[in-house]
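Subject: Reverse transcriptase domain-containing protein

B.,
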Amino acid sequence: MHRIRLEDESKSPVEHKSRLNPNLKEVVKKEIMKLLEAGNIYLISDSSWVSRVHVVPKKGGVSVVKNEKDELIPTRTITSHKMCIDYRKLNAATRKDHFPLPFID
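Prediction pasted inline below.
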């Protein structure tokens, strides 16, 4: 198991849950179940650190559509959505590693 070392004076932020429409809530539910079954995450009863989940559209291909003036307008199609987690507040409280990287020579 990997542990995240935090700064001593850091306090956990309270991030409120954002509302999702039912379709996006289903995307998040499927992604969490996939991560649980793969063993990448595990259930926890309570935690003082909670990060907000965002759902963003995945970009698909480009299709060209004609408008009323017979002009061709490229439009990007959305094929699916992906789940992103905002770890900015956790990253700010994480103790930095001070290991120099070797030169690539």
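The longest strand covers residues 53-66.

T.
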